[in-house]
């Protein structure tokens, strides 16, 4: 094992045989070592020149010929010189470099002068640039040759072999030089290209390569001790703030003293002033310098960036002040609505009741003639800030269906009924006629070619959502089944009414009905848009779903398309369909896939498409049905075909199994494959860098588990440097991968900076909501799994609150469903309650509970999960009051909707978990069991209520009967043991 692990140290950049991996070298120490080596080399050169001056002259001529140094056609043969003269000439060449030497003297002297100027760029750069414009054609030609070598990254001397560019355009050639790790050569090429027609193209190409293959290149720089050259190159080509941040991070790692006066890279000299100011603002925000960050963002003149900078630096007072000024100056309705929206957000967080009411008073005064986007902004910001009822009223002025959907999401059932426009008391008798009227209205619109959904149909969808929420799924399904026409085109993008119904079913999580209505018996196919929706409902991607449907024809050639489709859909839903033999047909499905892949590949030249037969989606299908042997065989097959994701999964599996040797070998293979750069992989993709970084994560974990502390520390340092990538996407993916591997500490550190940097990010940046959620999740994992690693619990809790809140605000203008603008703020208030419990703040807990109850008065999640924690934290009075309030609302709901067995059961279970209101819980639970006596879940709740009341004998009898129906349910076994022990104690 030690021998195997020691091999990893040599891996750094695997394709180069002469590379060794070591921790970054202190620049001063490196300069000292290099100086010593240069001294020794110089002595050797002097000795060699004194022995064989003629051979040196011949070598110069050969080198010139090898590199195609321009020669004068009329030049005479080279002159023979004494070795002493040759040595003296080389010693004095640095002092005597002049452009005239390129055209005077013998041929060998002119060749030697050309090579000396090429080698000694620092001394000769200016004179070569001047000589390139000389009137003497030979001087100009030789100088231009030198410039071409520099601009191509072709350097002489010890680096000659590894900086030899390949053919092709200069930007392409430099990509090859980059792969060789010759960062100084590329930097010289960039600098010498300044002022040429190719300069911008070269900079962009080098910047792109550095961004996408950053982990590979920085590992190369560490291995070769060329990290300063690498950083200098990034600094020179930085063309955006992401590269500027990478340069800044790396300079700080090298010990550079940076402040706002020198934080920008050299490449920023060509940026416009606003870009420079925003980049400086970003650096100030990362450093915690809030006031400078805000001032710089304000100077940049971008309203959104200025506001965002104040928000992430917790200066809501300044947000409120600037939005007030904006309101005073605004003459446009949309601008006023936006200003009042952000005024509302700021006042809410500041606790400024007067300003909050002023903002809400303006926002609720919506006009029916307003643009839809303005109306949506009004109700969304209201919904986000505890004004759900006001949001419903504003939405109703523009769209009754949207108002109904907001009401459904917030358990305001009476308001939902009102805005759907349908009387639930007439549901049984009139439902069919309601659907007929909606279809007639849609038919008229479709006949006119409008391409929009009829308002009555939209209200029927809202009614169906309400019925699902009330657990009246039969009537909801009847609505969905009737709204299944393919002929009615209801969007400008060509979606049919069936497509929208399938989408609504997915949103309502009625997945089984998707499979039921998506295809009719007479169908021979489905359109691509429809299959995309179906596949998503099945929990997979369209390509994987299509493959399985096609394979069903191979396995069951006599079945119809309808049957093949239904079988495939059932498989993806985790069920074995009728006619499918689990023991035989999964193996048959697996075996037929590779041959089908070969056929598709052979035909790909006709279709310009390649659909891989195997993929992670298909392996997930086998795993869903417990066919782990097929999963392993599939992973190996994919790995043999060069699928890096499969190789990564195999390495992860070996690590989890404790087979560190195999895991390490597989991680090495991933590193080699992902860092390869040849004709087939010259198209650079970000995945190369991500996979290479993942391979280092794997090797890091193996080293840690194997006790190689020093090696693990080296790997961790390299990972930290890789996380300084200019690609925000790579930083995000790497941090999430590190977090998924249980290394939350490093993930939190990486995401802590990324979440700020991404706030400033442009259109290529990852979704800020996802980045913030990843950060909050990593902190939560760290607190739960490694509590000793949390050195500042208060700050971590505050970070969770802050970024959860900002994440929700970040979706304000995004096209999410109506329920999102209720559900996400509700989750933030739930997080707030958890924070209050952790910090033992009773008043904050009461405030959070009040807000939760406002968003969803029937929300049992916090009642089941958090109210018991309140009691454990010592807030028993608050906990008892909260459960009383929840149960009172539950009893009112039960009286209005007495046939909703699921809700009755949920309220009873919540009461049992809290061991409060047990009489009411028993009443509700018995009613639920009476409505659905076959439900094991409902009977289990009844047993738990009886146990809490002390009737363990009856609880044991009920739970034992449940076990007969579901003998494999582990929860039932646990409950039976609990009741049995309670019975023994009573006796």
Automatic annotation (TrEMBL):
It comes from the Bacteria. Residues 57-109 are annotated as: Disordered. Residues 57-84, 95-108 have a biased composition (Polar residues). Gene3D superfamilies: Tetratricopeptide repeat domain. Coiled coil: none annotated. This is Tetratricopeptide repeat protein. It comes from Roseiconus lacunae. The lineage of its organism: Bacteria, Pseudomonadati, Planctomycetota, Planctomycetia, Pirellulales.
